[in-house]
Design a protein that fits this description.
Two copies of one chain form a homodimer.
Chain A (H helix, E strand, L loop, with lengths): L6 H10 L3 H5 L9 H29 L2 E3 L2 E3 L4 H10 L18 H14 L1 H20 L2 H13 L2 E6 L15 E4 L5 E11 L8 E9 L10 E7 L10 E6 L10 E6 L6 E5 L5 H37 L1 E4 L7 E3 L4 H32 L3 H32 L2 H4 L5 H8 L9 H12 L6 H18 L7 H21 L3 H36 L5 H18 L1 H5 L1 H5 L16
Parallel strand pairs in A: 3-6
Antiparallel strand pairs in A: 1-2, 4-5, 5-9, 5-10, 6-7, 7-10, 8-9, 11-12
Helix pairs in contact in A: 3-4, 3-5, 5-6, 5-8, 5-9, 6-7, 6-8, 8-9, 8-10, 8-12, 9-10, 9-16, 9-17, 10-12, 10-13, 10-16, 13-16, 14-15, 14-16, 15-16, 16-17
Chain lengths: 584, 584
Amino acid sequence: MPYTAPFAEQRFVLDVIADLPGLAALPQYANATPDMVDAILSESAKLASNVFAPLNPIGDKTHAKLANRVVTLPPGFADAYRLYIEGGWAGLGVAESHGGQGLPFAVAVAVQEQLTSANMAFALCMMLSQGAIEALAVHASPDLQDRYLAKLVSGEWTGTMNLTEPGAGSDVGALKTRAEPAPDGSYRIKGTKIYITWGEHDAAENIVHLVLARLPDAPPGIKGISLFICPKFRPDGSRNDLVCTGLEHKLGIHASPTCTMSFGDNDNCTGYLVGAEGAGMRAMFTMMNNARVQVGLQGVAIAEAATQHAVHFARQRVQSAKFGAGRDPVRIIDHADVRRTLMTCRALTEATRALVYLNASAVDRSHAGDVAGTGLADFLTPISKAWATDTGVEVASLALQVFGGMGYVEETGAAQFLRDARIAPIYEGTNGIQALDLVGRKLGLDGGAHWQELFAQIRDTIGDLTAHADLKTIAPWLDDALAATQAATIWMTGANNPDDIAAGATPFLRMMGLTLGGWLLAKQALTAAAYLASGNGDPAFLTAKITTARFYAEQILPQVAALSGPVTRGAALLYAIPEADLAA
Amino acid sequence: MPYTAPFAEQRFVLDVIADLPGLAALPQYANATPDMVDAILSESAKLASNVFAPLNPIGDKTHAKLANRVVTLPPGFADAYRLYIEGGWAGLGVAESHGGQGLPFAVAVAVQEQLTSANMAFALCMMLSQGAIEALAVHASPDLQDRYLAKLVSGEWTGTMNLTEPGAGSDVGALKTRAEPAPDGSYRIKGTKIYITWGEHDAAENIVHLVLARLPDAPPGIKGISLFICPKFRPDGSRNDLVCTGLEHKLGIHASPTCTMSFGDNDNCTGYLVGAEGAGMRAMFTMMNNARVQVGLQGVAIAEAATQHAVHFARQRVQSAKFGAGRDPVRIIDHADVRRTLMTCRALTEATRALVYLNASAVDRSHAGDVAGTGLADFLTPISKAWATDTGVEVASLALQVFGGMGYVEETGAAQFLRDARIAPIYEGTNGIQALDLVGRKLGLDGGAHWQELFAQIRDTIGDLTAHADLKTIAPWLDDALAATQAATIWMTGANNPDDIAAGATPFLRMMGLTLGGWLLAKQALTAAAYLASGNGDPAFLTAKITTARFYAEQILPQVAALSGPVTRGAALLYAIPEADLAA
């Protein structure tokens, strides 16, 4: 299926929500001039549409394959990866001091969105490498940076994240992989890791595995975990003692090799300590926070691609007369029920995109030393990750439905979007974990400053809407959503029983996501109205922005209040049925 | 994954919601004594658990395969089908006058639920045959019945439904297959049909295709359609001129051969007219209404199986300490967030089951000549079909999430449930078509008598709840849901613009489903409380029934009011963005 980058939309959200002009005014993002960002997004759009998208169905059908411990990618992927390196895309968001182009993360995210819409399984490789770069840039010694960072930034090497073990999934602290100090200052790593995305493949010269392991005398739990680099090939060119022993057969992202990795089968896996002993989780969180925003982005990207695909189909497929309107068959886009589906897809896509871009922008402000930016980024991350990925699945399923029977057969590609999207609520911390992170850590961050600040900004937006002749009808919907979300937040921050808090976490995160999404669309509508009034920009695009914000307010925001009860009912009823009686 | 039939639950819903005692009091269902129904459901549970369930993952991996125009089922399926015939299951719900066992459809539905939970792709074969039996029993001449019905009722032959063509999906009236009268009184059929479920296979001696086609002089549209039997083998044993030319590669139900059927490639496909010329759609609707209830049932069945599977996993998997409770890892069923997910799955499964069983019971009353039963069955059918199938997908996805990463790899089977479930909102009329049927035809049926009667019954239940010391907390939730649904119904019946009605149809159907589900659970809670008070039945089961009703009321019913706005906003905004601007 062809993919067209939503260039105007991306630029608008970068400007209005991610405050790209504000970022570009900071010394470290001075490269992010409007012309430069335009040029970048136009070029990456070509890579996405012309190179990544055509490989998407091929990867889905062919899968990455393992034979004799070698992983072979589907045909065309290795060549496409070379084009990615040659374009310099791997270093886009990396500081110039590390050999990158020094552009904001928000811009890198816009590029990554395009690549992910076009081919999520492939773009995962790039995502993992970006996380590895981030972790090494922050935590590795200059010596390790010299040896590993440059090749990751050029894209010649790729990076991975090795956390999960069979008995340690959500509970990372339970991991058992061991690291023994060796006389030369390196370590010998031994253990098995599972679900390692792009853990082995044939498109890059070397793979830099970031591996969490325990020293012999390490304390139990998270504090005993250290981070190591285990390169596929050691600096002297010799093959390290690590191997892919299996690939998962998955629901989707078939082109992405999900590896079982065995380290040190011959007691000769060389690892290099990153940061201090016992500081592994801190380093891994650097990588993981970046990755969580990018997984949220996957939800946006699949929603965008699936929506495009469904709109394209609905404009061509002729079937049945309109409801109550004679016998002449029309294209299905003319049916009100299909139109509702497509508008829902569109509104949810734009709302989640705005949230993820705002989150990325906060990461940029954080990197520039803005403490409030750090707090905001931390606060938003679980919401971006969980709400955008749940929404990505929802939109992919709605889009599939537009195709009718043709959505269920694999030829159209609608089913692939749903299958690919379904991993995102699971990995990088399940959405349940994100919800607990939100209520357990993020709500109380800096004394609640971040949700208070966000709510104040939403109130400002409601004020602006109310004062606006054309947009005031949006205000009451957003006001109701804010009132319910605020009441739920106050309940959450006042609750004492951990079970009650945990019981409400998932619907609470959903309230937050839905409300923030509605706010960010309303903000865009206000800007669009101002641009229209001043004759600035494409009227069709700006008018559509306003319509989408209104649709979301009327049709989607009412869900927020319906979640108040579920958030605040407590846990008692959840445990009332003995577990043995929960199912036949 | 093992499957255990929810015997106590099924019996309870049959008694309390489907009014099995009332049905058994009717002469034609006199066989449905409690002992008989117990014996049947125990036996079918064994068939489901021991024969159908073990084949489910095999069918998913192996697929039905086409080679040289012969379809081969996955290993074990043909043998299992023989056991199904030998058990006499095919004739369970067929009148004794046609050689069946004369049991109510509601009982046949309970059996079919078990088989579908165990193996949806396989149970589809039985479902299609039951529809064919129904159509022939009502519309075929005694002569055709003599030749075709007995072997379908015994299960030796299977039946299919041939509506869809490449240009005629939801719009059945657009079909082009032709039927030419032949001198011997039969017809020559010519045309191509697609998406023909179980259109060709090797488990039965013969296949009875029910084919919609047009006579040469037929008027355009639905009125020109006639129904024909095209047997795979003619009465003289010769092979008819019809052939499977292709199988679809689908997201799920891989063991179910979805065929492209070509009739009359050599101008020699014999067809026999069923009913009058031009009366094909009436006959097909007989079959389709039965099938729509049974597709709704597929949603229930997958929800049940997926929930069992997730509960089983959650009771075993140890991961992480409880939120806010130290460091000792617990089984994930002890985490409040997982427990919420499982309770949601359970509540939705029970609510949809009650609705579908009520619908089946109304079909039985209709068959017994009860006009109000006919109207109720017609009214409920689109709600059962659409709401239960949407819910089946939702529950399968929630259940998958409980498995974390293990849900995304195919080995566990969690992903298969989601893939299989996803067809049900599409076939037998997409859920969008069901919503238009509800607002366009069913709301006005008999002057609105059926929704008025249902609302009156819900009000009675609210009264009973309010008067009940232990259950009165459920009443306000149900009252709010009823008030919103009633207001939306009145809006719908008063709206004049077809676009506005169509625009609200899908959320309106959802309101109806959610409210009816909550009502039926509340009714069961009232009965459970009465049984508990009188020491009648298993206290654990009855107490769990009450808990589930309460959970649904508190956690799920609030969604109803949130749909009021979406139902009544009208269509204007849906068409505000020019279609060319709907997606990039």
